Amino acid sequence: MKRYQICCIGAGYVGGPTMSMIAYQCPHIDVTVVDISQARIDSWNSPSGDLPIYEPGLRELVLSVRDRNLFFSMELDEAIENADMIFVAVNTPTKMSGLGAGRAADLTRWELSARRIAAVATTPKIVVEKSTVPIRTAEAIASVLTASGRTHFSILSNPEFLAEGLEQALKYLLCVHFCKGTAIQDLQNPDRVLIGTNTEDPCSVEAMNVLVDIYSHWVPRNRILTTNVWSSELSKLVANSCLAQRVSTINAVSEICEATGADIDEVANAVGLDKRIGVKFLKASIGFGGSCFQKDILSLVYLCESLGLDEVAEYFYWIVKLNDHQKERFVFRIIHGLFNTVTGKRITILGFAFKKDTGDTRESSAIEVCRRLLHENAILSIYDPKVQSSQILSDLGHCTRLDPLELNQHVSIYADPYEACNQSHALVVCTEWDLFKELDFERIYCQMEKPAFAFDGRNILPHERMKSLGFVVYGIGKPLDKRLNLV
Ligand code: NAD
Ligand code: UDX
């Protein structure tokens, strides 16, 4: 009997991990992940398991199913034609030019994928919208797919809520090693799976049931929500906006703390212990990063503007504005703290990823901090345990428009945090990597120029101990160190 065939278009942060999970949990299904990038596919197929993305546990997961019932391939047409169900997990970044530039999601890759499916498919397909897309995209895609008239397509919306990095990734991915323990299994299950469909169309409802069955292999049925397709598309944008809003709220409060002497961690704890509010996502920082938050809020803003809901658009837009303000404010603290000039001063950047336990730098706040410091002619020494040097140089080259030669004169990247701190005027923590908490600060203090400054953009360093060693310390939303040249 023919095995059920799934194809996923897009072998990125979402396509690779989610399809690996389906292949692992459903050994009776063959899953083929395709992409237009030969480098990505080669990397997913790498014999040494040197995958294109770093996620704790992902390598083990992929290696346990790769070439069993999980395949990575460049053969798009073949995979589409063979598939019963096609996930589309291509990137949907913010549009950079044209109508809606800087706000709307760019759906070019989505539409290209849909046109490819329409051109190739000769048998009925279930097409699953996995990418984050604006509301009513499924409707537009249905028009593209059905225009060919060659076969029947059922369109489902199934937004992905996976977060990158250890804590959340473990929750979602690592049933692999621990699936027998009930407590751990609870921890590792996704909060919910959302499937949107056209509830008035019996074929779509049938397709939805097929997808529900697939997820039911490891997700409790009561956590699989089914809604109409527009609710599903909108929920994804709203979920990310709510999460980002909490971060912007606590970051706004961090500025009040610095102006009054209150302590942001104490305030966050006191507020978060109210069960209605909750403690998660109240960690003050240099601002949120990552490929999703800003893009999805802007997409929601654009939707509101298109609907003439100007006040609502403005409300959501302020989440992003506050985030920009937080990054700017942090850099001003560094410059003012260092006696109003950083020209020619060596500054150590600890962490470049947008959060810990990932090598992803998309929209990382570190990029904006570095850009501004380079604009002020600082000399940067950068250390991140997981981000490749080439990625850091590419990000900084892109945002500063400095050519590689100029960049090399201003930026050095180190594989060792102590070397990165040598002869530095200031440490600047941009990512909350755990290893930064354990550094030998006595050793670092001896290596640094004096006065030695530490600007902790994540409030993870041992501030009191560092102060006793002689460091002048700034923490986000912390009472200001009197030795810091700040007001
Ligand atoms: P990504 O850039 O890592 O991966 C997208 C992949 O699609 C790339 O490898 C690209 O080469 C491929 N691609 C683009 N056009 C293609 C085409 N026409 N045919 C075949 N392959 C094509 O992006 P991602 O982070 O995986 O995000 C994918 C979608 O999922 C986005 O809409 C994003 O908003 C959403 N999302 C991402 C996350 C996350 O944590 N990264 C979480 C939830 C949702
Ligand atoms: C996010 C959503 O959490 C996830 O559900 C969605 O599918 C994709 O977008 P991700 O971007 O991987 O996931 O990371 P997340 O943990 O949400 O953090 C986003 C940014 O906010 C990071 O830069 C993080 O450092 C920052 N953040 C998060 C804070 O500054 N403070 C917090 O309290 C929480």
From TrEMBL:
GO terms for molecular function: NAD binding; UDP-glucose 6-dehydrogenase activity. GO terms for cellular component: nucleus. SMART domains: UDPG_MGDP_dh_C. Its EC number is 1.1.1.22. The active site is at 292 (nucleophile). Residues 348-463 form the UDP-glucose/GDP-mannose dehydrogenase C-terminal domain. PANTHER family: UDP-GLUCOSE 6-DEHYDROGENASE, UDP-GLUCOSE DEHYDROGENASE/UDP-MANNAC DEHYDROGENASE. Belongs to the UDP-glucose/GDP-mannose dehydrogenase family. This is UDP-glucose 6-dehydrogenase.
